[in-house]
Design goal:
- Helix content is about 50%, strand content about 15%.
- By secondary structure, it is an alpha+beta fold.
- The protein has a two-stranded antiparallel ribbon.
- The two termini are about 50 Å apart.
Length: about 425
């Protein structure tokens, strides 16, 4: 039975071995003396290095131990500006979508993020839900609740229409209509639960101007239309009657004197008759003039009252129509506001999508740049697999030999099988 042992070893060329060792040293290396790890595989390519202001005034550095320090002893960091330069003033730094200043870094990849609502979208939301004025604290609505101010106006107009119609059904009072004010009605806890009418009051003065009481304020009575010159006319008429009476009395006295009856009883009776006639005529004339003035004033007052009632009913209907129109205007304003909100939000969504796409594309480019060294290493590894390498082989083979004793025994057994050893030389 034969046995063999074969050993084979492939050896790289010296230049290839050196290249591979240098390549691995860049990927990962451990310094036994310092105990430090180095190489690109020891640091994540996703994280960049913060850029600091160099303490020696040479410019920038990524080593915080070589950075300049501020008054608090912290390294002075650089910020990224919109034009691509660096600054140590945070107020001049470019801001992210959350309003935070962006630090200047060397390498690295921006963290994944989702673009939030744009300014236009946020404006649309404010328009929809109500935007608070920072000065007055009041809310302005273009969407939900936009109808509320118009509805309040319409409600006020309807209340005015009720008041106007209610006033137009009042009963005519020759002394004038009592004027009312509206007063809040409160419950036991002081909450307004309604309103009620309360008559307006004015002071009553005596001839010396002293307040002696109060009375309701009235408007539109006959006294407002009573002719102020009636008494002057009556006085003039009475004066004329008095002159006529005096003329007749003088004539009567002249006749009595000519007849020798001056101062007699007949003259006295005649004079009394003149006085009665004068008083009767004066009363009749005064009554007639006052009655005519009163009737005229009542007519004017009644006409004015009826006209006022008609105007009140007309005004009530007008207020109702106006309230209905303003309510419809509120609905239209809200509907138009919704259109504006929808348009603004849709445009903001387009802007948001574009910003998200730009951000994702920029981050993808940063990822490719960050992983470029690893791609090169992978390319080099693939390339090395295709390079032929020289090989040396060592083969050792052994074949064991048979035992001499075994051969002798074998031969002996063979002889025994072929002849009789003890019969050699015997006679036959």
């Amino acid at each position: 039975m034969a046995e063999s042992v074969v050993k084979t070893m492939d050896l790289m060329p010296e230049y290839l071995e050196k290249m591979f060792k240098d390549l691995m040293a860049n990927v990962f290396q451990y310094d036994e003396e310092s105990g430090e790890f180095s190489g690109i595989a020891t640091e994540s390519p996703l994280y960049g290095k913060q850029i600091y202001q160099a303490a020696d005034g040479s410019g920038t550095t990524t080593d915080p131990e070589l950075a300049a320090l501020d008054e608090a002893g912290n390294p002075v960091s650089y910020y990224q500006t919109a034009d691509g330069t660096y600054t140590t003033d945070a107020s001049l730094a470019e801001l992210d979508q959350f309003g935070n200043p962006i630090f200047a870094t060397e390498g690295g990849v921006a963290p994944p993020t989702k673009i939030g609502f744009t300014d236009l979208q946020q404006k649309a939301i404010d328009m929809l839900m109500g935007e608070k004025d920072p000065v007055t604290g009041e809310y302005s609505y273009s969407g939900l609740g936009a109808y509320k101010p118009y509805l309040d106006m319409a409600e006020n107009l309807y209340k005015k229409s009720e008041e106007a119609i209610d006033a137009s059904t009042a009963t005519y009072d020759p002394l004038g209509q009592i004027q009312y004010d509206m007063k809040d009605v409160l419950d036991d806890e002081g909450n307004v639960i309604g309103q009620e009418k309360v008559a307006q009051m004015q002071d009553v003065l005596d001839d010396e101007g002293n307040v002696i009481g109060q009375e309701e304020v009235r408007k539109g009575g006959y006294k407002d239309y009573y002719d102020p010159f009636v008494e002057d006319v009556i006085d003039t008429t009475l004066a004329d009657l008095y002159d006529i009476r005096q003329t007749e009395a003088n004539e009567l006295m002249g006749k009595a004197a000519s007849m020798g009856a001056f101062g007699g009883s007949r003259a006295a009776v005649a004079d009394q008759e003149l006085v009665r006639n004068y008083l009767r005529e004066a009363g009749a004339q005064g009554s007639a003039l006052r009655s005519e003035a009163f009737n005229t004033a009542m007519g004017y007052s009644t006409d004015a009252f009826e006209n006022a009632m008609t105007r009140g009913q007309t005004a009530g209907q007008m207020f109702q129509d106006l309230g209905t129109g303003i309510g419809a205007l509120g609905e239209a304003a809200q509907a138009l506001g919704f259109k504006d909100i929808n348009a603004a939000f849709n445009v903001g969504s387009l802007e948001q999508g574009q910003l998200q796409a730009e951000y994702d594309a920029e981050r993808q480019a940063q990822l490719e740049e960050a992983y470029e060294p690893f791609a090169l290493l992978s390319y080099a590894a693939d390339m090395m697999q295709g390079i032929p390498v020289s090989g040396t082989g060592l083969t050792a083979a052994g074949t064991p030999q048979g035992s001499p004793t075994a051969n002798v025994v074998t031969d002996t057994l063979g002889l025994d099988a072929g002849s009789d050893l003890f019969t050699l030389g015997s006679k036959t």
